[in-house]
Q: What sequence folds into this?
């Protein structure tokens, strides 16, 4: 799971890098840095994330990601089709939030599993 979290961290860093030409890029960079940090922390020092405080903060981030996924869910029909998301920024933003939330869920699962094994 460490390798998976490292790969997801790198992917989220790439998401941050491609925000350079977006008018609201700094906003999205901040959103993408949260899952990147969690995935990176878990990849590097997963033993420190198993604690109660870190787990609570990660849980709050996951809940925030789920709320944002609902809020930014694309209303464009067929948003998953390339010809739609290529042209529609709201579809891209919604899909970006979905991916960021999935990264947070993978991080949560990794920590949850580590907590179960330490019991």
A:
């Amino acid at each position: 799971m460490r390798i998976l979290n490292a790969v997801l961290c790198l992917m989220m860093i790439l998401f941050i890098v491609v925000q350079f030409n977006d008018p609201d890029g700094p906003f999205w960079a901040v959103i993408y840095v949260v899952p990147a940090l969690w995935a990176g922390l878990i990849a590097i020092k997963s033993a420190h994330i198993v604690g109660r405080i870190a787990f609570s903060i990660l849980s709050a981030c996951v809940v925030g990601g789920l709320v944002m996924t609902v809020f930014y869910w694309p209303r464009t029909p067929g948003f998953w089709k390339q010809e739609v998301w290529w042209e529609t920024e709201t579809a891209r933003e919604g899909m970006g939030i979905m991916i960021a939330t999935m990264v947070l869920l993978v991080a949560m699962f990794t920590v949850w599993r580590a907590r179960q094994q330490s019991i």
Observations:
- Helices lie at 2-17, 25-49, 52-71, 82-85, 89-118.
